[in-house]
Amino acid sequence: MSNPLPEIGRGLAAEWTRTSGRSFLWTVAVPLTVTLPLLITFGIATVAERFAAIPGQLQVTSVSTTNAVYWVITFATGTMMVTATYAHATCSRGNLRDLDAFLFPRLWTAALARWLYYGAVAALTTLALLVIVLTALPGLFPLVYGEVRLDDAAGLRFLWTVPSYAFLACGIGIAIGSVIRTPPAAIAVLLFWVFVAENSISLLPNGYTLQAYAPFLNAVAATGQELAFLPRFGRDGSLVYFLVVTLALFVLAVVIGQRRRRRG
After folding, report:
1. pLDDT tens digits for 40-52?
2. What CA–CA distance (Å, rounded) separates 234 from 152?
3. Looking at the domain assignment, is residue 81 inside a domain?
4. How many CB atoms lie within 10 A of CB 196?
5. How far is C-alpha 243 from the geometric centre of its chain's CA atoms?
6. How many domains does the chain have?
7. What is the model's pTM?
8. Any idea what DSSP says for residue 61?
9. Which residue range(s) make up the domain with 21?
10. Element holding 191 (H helix, E strand)
């Protein structure tokens, strides 16, 4: 068996070429990943600061670092995860599927290359957003966000856990895009899982026990973000759990995809 590393490198180069210029990634996905969390975060902060400045009218609770980057975690990670899902599902059907089969005899190398590519974009983008938000909030909105710090324990944890979560989430997106090769359907399944199923599973009998194993809720709690949900394996353990789930889904998706390829 030949060395797969050149094939992975070829996949990264191909994805860079495919998305360079005025592609969906750079004209829509990344700008949306950056602007949406910033607009919501600073919009809420502006309103809260104005209320806090009105004496005796309304008491506004100050925000700690652990609650300062929720919208970055939710929307930046979610947008890049959906983008990775769409990209891989699109390349898993029609003429692009045949091209992938020709360029990448090992199906997993193309999938891994896209995971690395979109995961790196997601991680770097979320890291930049974290620095901007955690630096700007206490300076611009001192009454409400004066306690927020980039260099406290929570801020420093965010700097590595949130990009890690974003990177791994793209892996799950790639896995779903491999199995469900219709992009809208793949995105719908992913969004239902993240925003509906995991949050509503507690309504089922023994729902809280089941919810304790929800991968995305574990991952968000592992970042240090304050949630009513308690991470099943502790913060570090829950991030490892999310890594294991991601790898398992990725391997399963590759096996399913390889069998489909053999059947033609």
Report:
1. 999 999 998 888 8
2. 20
3. yes
4. 10
5. 13
6. 1
7. 0.93
8. P
9. 5-192
10. helix 183-191
